[in-house]
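#help-structures
NK: newbie question, is this the right format to request a structure? protein is SPOR domain-containing protein
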Amino acid sequence: MSDSSGWYFCLTHQTVEHGKGCKGPDRMGPYPDEATAARALEIARERTKAADESDKKWRGDDED
């Protein structure tokens, strides 16, 4: 069950939704506000990049 009062980014429609909207698996969130939800894909890319860099560091791949 998703939070019906939060802001979400719908992956199907590539739009921001408030409250009830598309099905949970099709959405990212909840986010605290509309502007943050609009940046959902950018935030996900930033987090993935940071996690990838952390993994490289942990494995020792970052050393030349």
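mod (FA): yep, format's fine, and the tokens are attached above. The mean pLDDT is 90.
NK: thank you!
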